[in-house]
Model the fold of this input.
Amino acid sequence: MKVRAMQQTDIDTVVDIEQTNYYEPWTKQIFIDCLKVDYQCLILEEQGEVLGYAILMQVLDEYHLLNIAIKKAQQNHGLGYFLLQTIIEKAKNNQGKHVFLEVRASNQAARHVYKKLGFVEVGVRKDYYSAPIGREDAVLYTLDI
Done:
């Protein structure tokens, strides 16, 4: 298993994963734009198969995790944990001091992984996400590295 830079040729697969994971998925154009503006776009793959991805924005010594997903069929096998560990190590190696992210309040599986990696809940954005009925809060996390 390895983590590598996302290529233009990965985008269709990434969009497929995105659409099966999120209520309001990012569009293909958003991923294209992330590559264009030089966000850190990462792919988790094994034997040439894309298993997941992450999009990060770096601002000075801060890393903001904008999006992360693992293929549905591959979830609950530690791949998200592995990808996040790799992101944290990458940030450390680049003199990063903090990693920030937000997650749906209802996404208990992701919240468990973040806490296991040492992320600390620092706030809530009320009604941040659209939901099938109404709105849902975003929980904000930070990790000092």
